[in-house]
Amino acid sequence: MGDIKVITSDFVNLQISTSKNDISFGEKRFPKDITVADLKAKLELITGGNCQTMKIETYNKDNKFITTLSDNNQLVGFYPLDDGMRLHVIDDFHLPTEFNSENVPKFELSKEDYSKRENTVKDFLMKNKMGKYNEEYIKSKEQQEEEERKLINNMKIGSRCKVVVTNAATRLGTVMYTGTVEGLQGSWVGVKYDEPVGKHDGKVKGKRYFDCPDKYGALVKPSCVEIGDFPEEDYDLNEEL
After folding, report:
1. 108-146, pLDDT tens digit by residue?
2. Nearest one of 5, 67, 3 to 36, comparing CA atoms
3. CA dist., res. 87 & res. 92, Å (int)
4. Sorting pLDDT into bands at 50, 70 and 90, what band is 184?
5. Which helix (H) or strand (E) holds 190?
6. Residue 240 pLDDT class (50, 70, 90 cuts)
7. Torsions phi, psi of 87, nearest 5?
8. What is the largest CA-CA distance in the chain?
9. How far apart are CA 205 and CA 183, in angstroms?
10. How deeply is 82 buried, as exposed, middle or buried, from its count of CB atoms within 10 A (0-12, 13-18, 19+)?
11. Which of 112, 114, 178, 207 has its CA at 20 to 30 Å from residue 223's CA atom?
């Protein structure tokens, strides 16, 4: 009897969340033959976290913790990742406040001198063709951002919409904002949900993008938003169960 071979896809579709969870990310497609370090570089561009400091946890469709992607040199395909699972990026998403102290002398280094140094973040990224030094990924990212811009150009403020995010219930709402979000890559859609299942009131990280009642607002990627004639449902929030 011959050996039994299990053939799997070369790519995996994964949901992304962050430890700063006031943003909902749609599902992203990742190749399995990249290293965890390469994956972190991609997640840096998506989430704004630092690929040098971020920690990645994985959760299954039932929101059960599976494992931590701890080995930067290991291939993504080595880990038990299936379509629909979630990558949770844990990071500070900003420099520690102590580095902003006025009492700390500012160290300046010219771009020319910095480029000559070894064992720097830039040196590591260039040698491994990661982040902005990966031409293929940057081209793909630019194409994705162009597609997102085309999508939001067809979304008018006040339009009714349906938001579909993997591993979350389908939600109805109204488009309140389209455009960029400070500190995040690409284009975003601000939605006021018909029920209090959102994250905020339209204000994110101190900046207001639209107005709505608290817990009714969310920012989602354009690919998760479908415009259409979706009548508002009558939710009786005072109904006793």
Report:
1. 545 555 455 444 455 555 555 555 555 666 667 778 888
2. 67
3. 16
4. confident
5. strand 187-193
6. very low
7. -95, 125
8. 73
9. 9
10. middle
11. 207
What angle (nearest 5°) sits at the alpha carbon of residue 39, between those of residues 81 and 217? 80
DSSP structure class, residue 59: E
Q: Is the Cβ–Cβ distance between 177 and 225 less than 8 Å?
A: no
Query: Helices in 128-207 by DSSP H: which ranges?
Result: 135-153
Condensed to tens digits (0 to 9), the pLDDT of residues 189-210 reads 999 999 999 989 999 989 999 9
CB 60 within 8 A of CB 85: yes
DSSP state of 233: P
CB 123 within 8 A of CB 191: no
Residue type, 114: Y
More confident residue, 210 or 62: 210
Query: Which pair of tokens denotes residue 165?
Result: 């995010």
